[in-house]
Amino acid sequence: MSKPRIQFDSVSVSFDTDSGPLKVVDDFTLGINEGDFISVVGPSGCGKTTLMNLIAGFVAPTKGVVTLDGQKIEGPGRERGVIFQEYGVFPWLTVEQNILFGLQLKKSEINKSRYQEILDRYLKLMGLAEFAKSYPKVLSGGMRQRLAIARAYAVNPEFLLMDEPFGALDAQTRSSMQNLLLGTLLTEKKTVMLITHSVEEAVYLASKVVIVTARPTRIKEIIEIPFGFPRQESLKDDSEFNKLKARIRDSVMQEYDHQQKLLVQTV
Fold first, then answer.
1. Does domain 6-79+157-266 have CATH number 3.40.50.300?
2. Which residues pair with 20 in a beta bridge?
3. Whole-prediction pTM
4. Residue 118 phi/psi, 5° resolution?
5. Which helix (H) or strand (E) holds 19?
6. Sign of CA dihedral 232, 237, 242, 248
7. With bands split at pLDDT 50, 70 and 90, how would you rate the model's confidence at 60?
């Protein structure tokens, strides 16, 4: 078995609060291999986003270490692209300026002669070509999220870190975006960590689902998803798919109930 590209090794994270240290992640160990699509599910507020922020280099462990190819992650890097729930696009830049933004940073190693080729590719891939000169305010929610994905892809990261990227979208647009992501990944070949509250989304998109506990985050269970790629929308009607979805949902709800009981005890 190949060595994991990203490794959490006994990682714990605590934040200072007015009432003292708050442990958000506790003794978390996980390896992410090349080409994995990892979905992380668990109750709201349990610390899922902190896991993503550790890989992104936005947060440092209190204990333990997170490594990329054996090297300690000590900050953001161009090999890790981040896509947030809040679209993460710059309203003062046009669509094409948003896509080119990362390419124009000093850390980008992509030759300027390729900028137009890359811009044209992602404008077409994300269906945004006719809005190239437009500002994000005229785009729908789904289009703004497509723009955010285009900007992340343009700098050619090896890893995509996605925090509830489709959470603010209506059901139809969310489904469309899921299929767009799957289709893009077939050609772009990224390693992905997705944070989501949707169990159906986790099962539909991922190669592995990591169920985490109520805060502080620990691994409760890792489930290998048995369905191959490419995937079609009809998979969501499959009996095995729905059994797996129900099993994961029940496990997450157990943690949610546990979290609510703890909240009541502290009031």
1. yes
2. 17
3. 0.87
4. -65, -45
5. none
6. positive
7. very high
